[in-house]
Amino acid sequence: MQFSILDKNTGTLSHFKDAFIAQRMMSMGITPGSKLSLIRSMPHLGAYYIKADNKHFAMREEEVRALIVV
Amino acid sequence: MKTPDTKLAKIALCGNPNSGKSSLFNLLTGQKQKVANYPGVTVDLKYGKLKYSDQEVQIIDLPGTYSFYPSSNDELVVSRVLANPEDENYPNGIVYTIDITKMDKQLLLLTQIMTLKIPCLLVLNMFDLVQNQNIDINVIAQKMDLQIVKLSTKTGYGLKELKAKVGELYVQPQNFVSANSFFSPSDQLKEMANLVKIKTGFQNEYQNILVAHHYAHYPFINEMDKNEFTAQFEKNGFVSLDYQIKETLGRYDEFESILKSATQVQSNSEAQSIKLDKILTHPIIGVGLFFLLMLILFQAIFAWATIPMEFIDGVFGSLGGWVSKNFSDTWWTSLLSDGLIAGLGGVLIFIPQIAILFFFLSILEQSGYMARVVYLFDRFMQRFGMNGKSLVAMVSSTACAIPAVMSTRTIPNSKERIITIMVSPLMSCSARIPVYVILIALVVPTTKVLGIFNMQGLVFFGLYGLGILGALLSALAFKYILKSNERSFLMLELPDYKLPSITNTLHVVKDKVFTFVWEAGRIIMVISVVLWFLSSYGPSSQMAAAEQAGQEIISQQNLSSTDAENLLASKKLEASYAGHLGKLIEPVIEPLGFDWKIGIALITSFAAREVFVGTMATIYSVGSADNDFAIQKKMAAEINPATGQKTFTFAVAMSLLVFYVFAMQCMSTLAVVKKETKSWKWPIIQFTFMTLMAYFGSMLTYQLLS
User: Fold this and answer.
1) pLDDT of B475
2) Other C-beta atoms within 10 Å of B251: how many?
3) pLDDT tens column, B665-686
4) Which CATH superfamily is B10-176 part of?
5) B665 and which of A57, B476, B609, B681 could share a cystine (Cβ 3.0–4.6 Å)?
6) In this predicted model, which residue has the larger pLDDT, B98 or B531?
C-alpha cells in the first residue's frame, strides 16, 4: 500500500509516482528523504499548502498524491 | 529594453527565484528594476553596468530558475543562454546568489553551472539572518572549490567585497573555475553528447548534453539538425526525463553531504510565515482579506490622489491661460495652448493615481503575498481554464497589461497561458483610470454609502468588477474552444514573508511613472498635435461656409462675444477634418449614444486609451473660447445641438465607460501579445473579440439606461 501525505498528514518522501512531477519537485528541492507535512488545504478540490523540510509549497491534489511517503 | 554591450565583459546573475538576485542587481548597477518576491518576476533579461575602480563590466540579470531542466518559458531562457557559447549574452563569469536560509534547496543550479566550467562566484545572501548560527563557510568553499562572498542585500553588508570580487572574476577568471564537476554522465549520455557535438562543435560535454535534452526549444539549432536529433535519439532509446532525474539525484547526493558537514541553518522568518499564513491563506478569512485589500487599494486611488491631481490641473490651467494671454493669437500659440499643453496636462494629471497603484502592487509582490494569492485562487482559476498564476497576471494587469502578458511566461501550460494572455487586458489597467475618473466625476454624485464608502469610489470598483467578469466569461469561452493535451500543474514555492524595501518600492513607482509619461506621453503628444491640426483645419470652402453660417446666426441672435466665439469655434470644428472623420463613423456609434466628437476620441484612443482625455482636452479647447483647462467642466457643459440636452447624460457616460472597460485600445499590448505568442493570430483574435464585446456591451448599456 502506498501513502501520500493526504493519508498520513506527515511523512518522509520515499519516491515519486510520476517522472514529470518528480523532475519539477526535485528542482525545487523536494527529494527522497525530504520531510513532508500537510499544513492546510483550500476547499472544493483546491490547492494544498505543503511544508517540505524548511520550504513551503502550493500543490494540486495530483501533485501531492505523486509524493509517496513512509 | 537595453541590449548587451558587445565591447564589455559580461557577468551574469543567476540563482533560484526568491534568492534576492533582483535586489543584488539593483545594488550592483544602481539601476531601477522591478524587485519582487513572486517567483518568476524577472521574465526578460535586464542589463546594467558595474563600475569598480577603473573597471567596467556589464551585468546581466537572468530569470530566476531552479535548474537547467525548466518547466516554463522564462526558465528556459537561462539554459538557452548558457548552453550556447555563441549566444550574445553568454557570460564571461557568473555571480550565483543563494538565500542562505534555504541553501540546501538552492545548490542544484549552481552545480550545473559548475559542470559547464563557466567562472563562478558564490554569493550567500541574507547573511544577516544567520550570523549567529553555526555555519562554516570555509568548509563549503573548500569542498566545492569555489570563492564565496557573504552578503545582505537588505543591509548592504558585504557589498564592497562583492564588487571587488566581481572585478577579480573578470580579470582572473581562471581562479573561479571549480575543479569539482558534480556530475559524471553515463556512457549512453556521453554517446548522445557526441552525436550533438558533431553538429554544434561545442567543447563542453555538458553543453552538448543540455542540447540533447532541449534541442526542440533552442533557436540556435536548425530544423534539419532537430529532425536528425529526434531520429537518432529515438533509435538509441534516449529518454530525456529519466536522465534528468538521475542527474538531479546524483547532484543532490554530492552537495547534501558537503552541506551536512558545514552547516545547520534555521531561519525564524519561516515560523513567522506559518503564523501569518494561518490567517492569510485561510479559505474564508484569506479570500475575504484579499478582496478587502483590493477594495482599500481602489479607495486609496480615489481618496489620496485628489489633492495632487488638483494641483497638477491648476498648474496646467494657469500655463495654458498664461500662453493665451501673453502671446498674440497665432497658429503656434493655438498649437501650444490647445494642442500641446492641453494634451500633456491631460496625461500628467493621472500620475498620482498610477503612483499609488504601483506602490501598493509592488509592496504586495515584494512581501511574498502574491504567491499566496496563487494558492488561494488556483482551483477557482482552473474552472475558467487558467492557473492560479493567471490571477497574479490579472492583478498586475490592473496596473498595465504589458508586464502582465510578459509574466504569463511563468505559466507552463500553453493553453492556460494563451487564455491568460487573451483575457488579462480586460482587467482595468492604469490607462483606463483617466477615462473612468472623468466620466464618473461627470455623472456620479460624491455621496457617502454606509458612512464610509464614496459613491464614486464604488462605481470605480464596479467598473473593475465588470472587467473581471468580462475576463472570466471570455476565459470560460476560450476554455471550451481551445483544445490541448498538455499537462497542467501548480507546484509553486511559497516564499517566506519579507518586509518590503521602501527603496525598491520607490524605484518601482518612479520607473513606472516615468514609463507611463514617456511611453504614453509620446503617443499622446503626437496625437495631440495631429488632432489639433485636424480639428483646426478643414477643406477651405467648407471652413469658410461654416464661418459664414456662424456669423449669420451671431448677427441674427445678437450673441455676446464669448457665446459668439464658442459658436464659431464649434461650427469650424464640425467643418474640420476631424469633424468629417467623426461624422463618418457617427452612424455606427449612434446606437451607443455617442456623437461625432466622442467618435474622434474613440478613433484616436485605439492607439492608447489614455489618449481619450488628451483628445477631449484638445477638441474642447479648440471648440471653446475660454481658458479654463478643466476638461471635466467643459464636458459637463457640452450641449448636443440635435437634442438641446447635455451631451454627457448618465446613459452616454455609462455606455462610454462600458466601451472603455472592454475595448482593446492599446497598440503596445497587441505588439507584446504578438511577440509573446509568436503569431499575428492571437492579437487579431483578441482585438476582434474585445471590440465586439465593447460595442455590444456599450449598446446594451445605452439602450437600457436611455
Assistant:
1) 97
2) 23
3) 887 788 878 878 888 999 999 9
4) P-loop containing nucleotide triphosphate hydrolases (3.40.50.300)
5) B609
6) B98
CB pairs A-B closer than 8 Å = 114
Judged by CB atoms closer than 8 Å, whether chains meet at A42 and B371 is answered as no
pTM, to two decimals: 0.78
Identify the CA nearest to B281 among candidates A65, A26, A57, A62: A57
SS (H, E, C) B149-167: EECCCCCCCCHHHHHHHHH
CA distance B218 to B216: 6
pLDDT at residue B622 in the model: 52
* Chain A touched by B492 (CB under 8 Å): yes
Domain range enclosing A64: 5-69
- Shortest Cα distance from A1 to chain B (angstroms)? 24
The span from the CA of B539 to the CA of B542, in Å, is 5
- Number of domains chain A contains: 1
Are the beta carbons of B91 and B10 closer than 8 angstroms? yes
Q: Would the CB atoms of B105 and A39 count as touching at under 8 Å?
A: no
Q: Residue B520: what pLDDT?
A: 65
Place of cell 509592488: B362
* Backbone angle region of B126, left / alpha / beta, with phi > 0 → left and psi within -120 to 50 → alpha: left
> What are the boundaries of each domain within chain B?
10-176, 187-262, 285-481, 525-705
Strand partners, A3: A69
User: Average pLDDT in the B154-174 region?
Assistant: 89
Supply the CATH number for residue A22's domain: 2.30.30.90
